[in-house]
Automatic annotation (TrEMBL), chain A:
GO terms for cellular component: plasma membrane. It is found in: Cell membrane. It comes from the Bacteria. It holds the Pfam family BPD_transp_2. This is Branched-chain amino acid ABC transporter permease. The chain crosses the membrane at residues 12-29, 62-81, 93-114, 134-157, 186-205, 211-228, 235-255, 267-285. It is a multi-pass membrane protein.
From TrEMBL, chain B:
Keywords: Cell membrane, Membrane, Transmembrane, Transmembrane helix. The keyword Phosphoprotein does not apply. It is a multi-pass membrane protein. InterPro entries: ABC_transp_permease, LivM-like. The chain crosses the membrane at residues 31-47, 53-72, 79-99, 105-126, 133-150, 193-212, 243-268, 280-302, 323-349. Pfam families: BPD_transp_2 (PF02653). It comes from Rhodococcus erythropolis. The keyword Cell membrane applies. This is Branched-chain amino acid ABC transporter permease. The lineage of its organism: Bacteria, Bacillati, Actinomycetota, Actinomycetes, Mycobacteriales.
């Protein structure tokens, strides 16, 4: 039983990291209808930036400066590259974000080298024990932060003018334009917000015992099953989808280790994702208006 | 929910063009064609470099797959990131029939097409009920599922160690050894022999694709691509059309995969990655969406680009020649960076691809010629 | 009839559209004409030469991963090889010829490896370093066909039986077994004093092989029992399952057969769960950069390595440090540079012998490799390459790691009966 709880907690903690990454994807999708394949590398870049700044200043400041840098970068990318893709086909936009993702990855390797570095998390390796379950502080911090972020985003979207404007743009661009909403600013806002979430996700993704390394961008790809399962335009769905993926991975690495060559837990999120797409493409919490023939 | 705002590309560029210009185009077309065919036949005798011959062969093989990608994405407008999976299916089919069962190339190569096409037919009905982005991520999932299958189905794939691929044998000679006369003289080197074989397959697939594009089925693809709801109203069975596009595209991918591993001689499950599929999308988009020549051009461009950067990099002052694990602009990193950059630049500045980019000066010249002859 | 001319016009138009492809293809190919391969001949100084060797140059190729998942150790390995070749060239080269190294990036992808191999194969006489087991597998048949002498830097027994491919250090399994035997001796294991050990390995055929070698050796030592053998998948980034399984098994010694990408997670999360056994990794499980995340957790961490460390006080390392200072002064030190240096030393030894035999053809180099003694200047004990199909050495050494992640030797070079038994049982 203790083992089940232990695995469950770790699964939730890891799942929350995926959820934070997924939130960034969802915000960009909601705000500008782009599925940004480069988001994983922005998460990685955020972690690298925090780590680089940590050498000169306390973690809190490093985090804040990194957020500023990443938001500026994301808004620039959106304005320079993606703005020109408005109205182009899905294939074009997907390929463009893939191209940007390749560039960002190589830029990371050129700036910081091909090796691994230290951790960029806010807390170290400390733990607190509750009964027979060990709770790492990094896991607690991840969960706590995710809840706060989710609450903040919910408030933002429901109660603030910018949030409402963003939702209006997401649901019907032309109507939003007619209302006088500056749609270009909404695009920039959604990317900026996603960049902020990317840095948050990045520091937890690179928390002990994980480190900042070129592989971070690929790990972030696991957020894709999370979004699909949760629903591509649902904030709650992103978190729930992330939790499901995290739990599958961690619980599966123990309970499924005897089946399928010991690697079934690695592919299971994708199987579930494919099944969801076939049966219920809008996911658990997504809105039904989504593409189906 | 997402509607395409750009108008459908006009594929027949003789529409609305005066007859005189069309006749001039036909004449110049035949000249270009003759030159192109002769050039492709002559290349293996002119080119001495192993490096570029190898690149060329990989490009010819990739062009077959790129044509398949063009069918599904350029003609039928469905974005698929699963090309690598169907290539792998073709590869493993050919390996099983060619190596394990000892059958010759004219059995395993078509079989690769058939099995991969069937696999496409199995996946397609589920996949094509969803549109756009969802199809992209669904096919992305297929890659990860595929990798898992190849790595665990060890009797077929050889596991992580990989397995041998079938050889192409003409008159009992393995083309990888070159082609020799009965007197023991080398008529063709391995590069030359494989170039011609790959070229032959590519030409067959090219003609098939061209005929497909001009056929009723091809027009149905394009109707579905542009306005699938309208196409449905016009009486085109949309789902079935998409499935057929998937099947054809997967079959071509299977041929490409079988050729690829045969040329490699030995292959592992780890090589069927997402980047393989991304490469093919890049080939058709950069080469020219919706055109046969664009797919071929894109294939050559994508395969040649890393080597072009390698050739250029000693002349670029900011490229560091020494390997370093701590960062710095080295040739391998720069070439990958430029790959991404070129994709983005082409999409921004010439979304119709390199083909359109090349046509501009040609059309300008042609306009001058026909304008001057009036 | 109208239809026929219509479709012919279409075909012509299609081919015409492919003209730009022609333009690109010809432009590329014509501007990139390279030299053709030369056959065997005798040069002015009576040395027989073949492909890759001219009167002034001996051409070599390294096929490694400069931009993919193995980039960090692979790049360091490349640097180690390059500085050794620079040093040999500064001293006059071999047979009066300068060693030229062609660096080919395989990206750890079999297709790219094949492409790069084919591009360079006709131009070189030897491959001093090839990294990546899957890359090696992709070109093994070509290597055999081309008779191209190759040193594999992936210390996997899969490479041992390959034609024309040799490994000059013990394979990973020997490192693992020797590590287990040392731990058992240190703990005083016997039938009355049993020792519980565990082994962590990847969930694939290589992992099964590593785990089996450890289990084999355990059976040979009275009192030693393998109580857990958890596996992992390369995509895992949480190791709670493995750490818990290890902890619950009661193992006091854990043999790590994973790559350096998993070590931080395994050791770190085990520590968080309150589990701190004696960790013994093979040389591929440790990297200096791991000292950062695992700060304070490496007091009981040992590396069983078949080659030496940067701070050894032997001539070989002194030579290497001198070369590093001269040719790669800005590189951060990494033990994989030592591995690369070894490949350079072995290559130089082979080529020197071939020069003595006055045969610098591929066959001559292969012949020179037979039964050749290679002196590594103390970085590891002298090895004899034998026929290239067997394990050349069973000697390894235990190391601890210091605060910077560098290896500090704690024992002398030693071999074990259990490793030899394993080698014999597996036909090496």
């Amino acid at each position: 039983m203790a083992l089940f709880l232990q695995l469950g907690f770790q699964g939730i903690a890891l799942g929350m990291v995926y959820g934070l990454i997924a939130l960034g994807f969802v915000i960009m999708y909601k705000g500008s209808h782009t599925f940004n394949f480069a988001h994983g590398e922005i998460v990685a870049l955020g972690a690298y930036t925090v780590l680089a700044l940590m050498a000169f200043m306390p973690w809190g400041l490093a985090f804040l400066f990194a957020v500023v840098i990443m938001v500026v970068l994301a808004v620039l990318i959106e304005a320079v590259f993606l703005r020109r893709m408005v109205g182009k086909s899905v294939t074009t936009v997907v390929l463009a974000t893939l191209g940007i993702s390749i560039m960002l990855h190589q830029a990371i390797l050129m700036i910081w080298g091909v090796g691994t570095h230290g951790s960029a998390g806010p807390v170290g390796s400390g733990t607190v024990t509750v009964g027979s379950v060990v709770l790492p502080w990094s896991g607690i911090a991840t969960i706590g932060t995710s809840v706060v972020v989710l609450a903040g985003l919910a408030y933002f979207f429901q109660k603030t003018p910018y949030g409402l404007a963003l939702r209006a743009t997401a649901s019907h661009q032309e109507a939003a334009l007619a209302q006088g909403i500056d749609v270009r600013r909404m695009f920039a806002l959604s990317w900026g917000l996603a960049a902020f979430l990317a840095v948050v996700a990045g520091v937890f993704l690179a928390s002990f015992p994980r480190v900042v390394s070129p592989a971070l961008g690929i790990v972030a790809l696991l957020a894709i099953p999370a979004i699909v399962i949760g629903g591509m335009d649902s904030l709650v769905g992103a978190i729930v989808g992330g939790l499901i993926v995290g739990l599958i991975q961690v619980m599966g690495s123990y309970y499924l280790s005897d089946i399928g060559g010991g690697r079934l837990h690695e592919v299971l999120p994708y199987i579930v994702m494919f099944a969801v797409l076939v049966v219920r493409p809008y996911g658990l919490f997504g809105s039904k208006s989504i593409e189906r023939v | 929910m997402t509607t395409t705002l750009e108008p459908a590309p006009i594929d027949d560029d003789t529409a609305g063009v005066p007859a005189e210009v069309v006749r001039t185009k036909k004449r110049s077309t035949r000249v270009w064609v003759a030159v192109w065919v002769v050039a492709m036949l002559v290349v293996p005798w002119v080119v001495q470099s192993d490096l570029w011959m190898g690149v060329g062969i990989f490009a010819l093989i990739a062009a077959v797959g790129a044509l398949g990608m063009q069918v599904i994405t350029g003609f039928a407008g469905q974005i698929s990131m699963g090309h690598a999976v169907f290539m792998a299916i073709g590869a493993y089919t050919s390996a099983w029939l060619g190596v394990d069962e000892g059958l010759p190339v004219w059995v395993w190569l078509p079989a690769a097409a058939v099995v991969a096409g069937l696999a496409g037919g199995v996946v397609a009905p589920a996949a094509v009920r969803i549109r756009g982005l969802y199809l992209a991520v669904a096919t992305l999932a297929l890659i990860f599922i595929g990798t898992y299958v190849w790595e665990t189905w060890t009797s077929l794939s050889g596991g992580v160690n990989g397995r041998t691929a079938p050889a192409v044998e003409i008159n009992g000679q393995d083309l990888l050894d070159g082609y020799w006369s009965s007197g023991g003289e080398e008529i063709l080197t391995s590069f030359q022999a494989w170039w011609y074989f790959a070229l032959a397959v590519l030409l067959i697939v090219t003609v098939l694709t061209w005929n497909l594009k001009r056929s009723r089925l091809g027009r149905a693809f394009m109707a579905v691509r542009d306005r699938d709801i309208a196409a449905g109203v016009a009486g085109i069975p949309v789902t079935r059309t998409k499935v057929v596009a998937f099947v054809i595209s997967s079959a071509f991918a299977g041929v490409s995969g079988a050729l690829l591993v045969s040329y490699m001689g030995y292959f592992t499950p780890s090589q069927w990655t997402m980047m393989v599929s991304v490469d093919f999308i890049a080939m058709v988009v950069i080469g020219g969406m919706g055109t046969v020549a664009g797919a071929i051009l894109g294939a050559f461009f994508i395969k040649a680009m890393p080597e072009m950067v390698n050739v250029l990099s000693p002349y670029l002052p900011f490229v560091s020649k020494d390997a370093s694990a701590d960062g710095g602009v080295t040739a391998p990193l720069l070439s990958q960076f430029l790959y991404g950059l070129v994709i983005v630049l082409v999409l921004i500045f010439e979304p119709k691809g390199l083909l359109a980019l090349f046509k501009r000066p040609i059309d300008w010249i042609r306009a001058r010629i026909s304008g001057g002859s009036k | 009839m109208w239809v026929k001319s219509q479709s012919r016009r279409d075909v012509l138009k299609m081919l015409r559209k492919a003209a730009p492809a022609l333009a690109i293809a010809t432009m590329l190919t014509l501007t990139a004409c390279g030299g053709s391969a030369s056959g065997d001949s005798a040069s002015a100084d009576g040395v027989k030469t073949g492909k890759g060797v001219s009167d002034s140059e001996i051409n070599l190729a390294i096929l490694t991963d400069y931009s993919g998942p193995l980039a960090q150790p692979a790049t360091s390995g490349s640097i180690g090889l390059e500085i050794k070749l620079d040093q040999v060239n500064a001293a006059g080269g071999i047979c009066g010829r300068q060693l030229v190294l062609h660096k080919m990036d395989t990206k750890y992808d079999p297709q790219v490896t094949t492409q790069q191999y084919r591009a360079i194969a006709n131009k070189v006489v030897m491959i001093p370093q090839l990294i990546g087991t899957s890359s090696l597998m992709a070109v093994k048949d070509s290597i055999a066909k081309d008779d191209l002498p190759t040193f594999s830097a992936s210390l996997n027994t899969a490479a041992l039986k390959l034609e024309d491919v040799a490994i000059y250090t013990p394979p990973f399994e020997v490192e693992l077994i020797n590590g287990l035997v040392w731990a058992a001796q240190k703990a005083g294991a016997s039938a009355t004093n049993p020792l519980k050990v565990a082994v962590v390995a990847p969930a694939d055929e290589y992992g099964t092989g590593y785990a089996d070698s450890v289990k084999f050796a355990a059976e040979q030592i009275p009192g030693v029992e393998v109580v857990a053998s958890p596996t992992y998948s390369p995509a895992d980034n949480d190791f709670t399952a493995q750490a818990t399984e290890l902890k619950n098994s009661g193992a006091t010694v854990v043999i790590l057969a994973n790559t350096m990408a998993q070590t931080a997670g395994l050791v770190g999360q085990s520590a968080q769960l309150g589990y701190s056994p004696q960790w013994i990794g093979y040389s591929g499980a440790w990297n200096a950069a791991l000292a950062k995340p695992l700060a304070g957790l490496t007091d009981n961490f040992y590396v069983s390595a078949s080659y030496g460390a940067l701070n050894d006080d032997v001539q070989g390392i002194k030579d290497m440090n001198a070369a590093l200072a001269q040719y790669a002064p800005n590189e951060k030190p990494s033990n994989f540079q030592v591995a690369g240096w070894l490949s350079g030393t072995a290559t130089a030894a082979v080529l020197e012998k071939a020069c003595e035999n006055k045969d610098l053809t591929r066959e001559g180099v292969l012949a020179a490799m037979q039964d050749l003694d290679i002196d590594f200047g103390g970085i590891l004990p002298t090895v004899n390459l034998g026929t290239g199909d067997s394990i050349v050495s069973y000697q390894s050494r235990m190391n601890t790691v210091n605060a910077d992640g560098l290896l500090i030797p704690t024992t002398d070079w030693a071999e074990t009966d259990q490793a030899r038994a394993w080698g014999e049982a597996n036909g090496f």
